[in-house]
Amino acid sequence: xxxxxxxxxxxxxxxxxxxxxxxxxxxxxxxxxxxxxxxxxxxxxxxxxxxxxxxxxxxxxxxxxxxxxxxxxxxxxxxxxxxxxxxxxxxxxxxxxxxxxxxxxxxxxxxxxxxxxxxxxxxxxxxxxxxxxxxxxxxxxxxxxxxxxxxxxxxxxxxxxxxxxxxxxxxxxxxxxxxxxxxxxxxxxxxxxxxxxxxxxxxxxxxxxxxxxxxxxxxxxxxxxxxxxxxxxxxxxxxxxxxxxxxxxxxxxxxxxxxxxxxxxxxxxxxxxxxxxxxxxxxxxxxxxxxxxxxxxxxxxxxxxxxxxxxxxxxxxxxxxxxxxxxxxxxxxxxxxxxxxxxxxxxxxxxxxxxxxxxxxxxxxxxxxxxxxxxxxxxxxxxxxxxxxxxx
Amino acid sequence: xxxxxxxxxxxxxxxxxxxxxxxxxxxxxxxxxxxxxxxxxxxxxxxxxxxxxxxxxxxxxxxxxxxxxxxxxxxxxxxxxxxxx
Lengths: 392, 85
Fold this sequence. Notes:
The complex is a heterodimer. Chain A contains 16 helices and 15 strands. Chain A is an alpha/beta fold. In chain A, strand 12 (266-272) and strand 13 (275-281) form a beta hairpin. Chain B has one domain (2-80): Ubiquitin-like (UB roll), CATH 3.10.20.30.
């Protein structure tokens, strides 16, 4: 008999083995089921409700996962051998009732017991997104969801730069970019997608280089064109979230109206000198219908009432702050976590170092999303045909 | 009371946070115009209507009524649509 087998036989004298059916019954009575296999095995699927702690860091992670040493632990591995050793270690840590599953996950599956679908992340992705995977709000399922998601960034400028970089880093699988401009040297004070060497290049091409260098797993879809009535719906359709980082009012209203029609959340950001605004405009929000941008500002101001940043200036970091809040809101929307800025607008004042939160109400008579008695529209019914969850 | 001025109107006030008095929003705007002549017209049109790109919030809640009563402890935030990106 080999040393390992001798040791296993010795452990069996003090660690009780359960059949998968016995383990399932004990789990239903409150025991913790612990998967101690390697991450690449766990990625192929695991027992429903199992804590996927793995063997390597088991002793370090178990206390966080199961703080009560009296709670029974049922440990399993692939075939029932590694789990014996792991169970023995856990008993030595002070857990009073530790069991090992005979036959492991292989027999669990043969017995037809409930399993969780295999995850979609390969080894490289699990390493890249390790900090996301550690958080239960994201985890492997959430990261896989981000990788399947599509975000369109309108403008690859001051707001679009930080938003696109962080969304690419976060593993949002498809990033669309709409911009018809070329990189100018005066952009580089804030538009951190671009570089001195790429002055004169198309912004979309420059942004693609930066994003693919950061995360080659992200698909970048370039739209090197100006958004106009004739193309806006065609370009926006199919995206889960639109990040408005444009630099002019006609585009902002165009984006809002198309988002309303398509049912896509419009993650709006705008900056001016030391001030920034960010909010999510989404009348089709599933939990509570929110206002659209026109509910807040029905019409754009005249040019003299609203000079652009080119005329008035902007502190370079302000679009950084606001663009990252737009990225944050986008990720929350894609994952369905937290409280999105639906019906709220955050106003950032860099000089005061202060955020103020404003409650933005829906305007029932709004021209874009209003449910008022407009021709051909029933009360309470919204225009457009997007999905209620925004994943058009 | 504290009134927060949107950046595009700082050319009138020179700063974001100013002090103004009044029992209603209309009174406060009149006081602002006394202190910073011309600023009211940038927010309120000839027909005494709020301009469509300027919105008013009292303690974070939007108000559309210039005659709504205010307390000296209220904070009025005037917000203007911004386009910069």
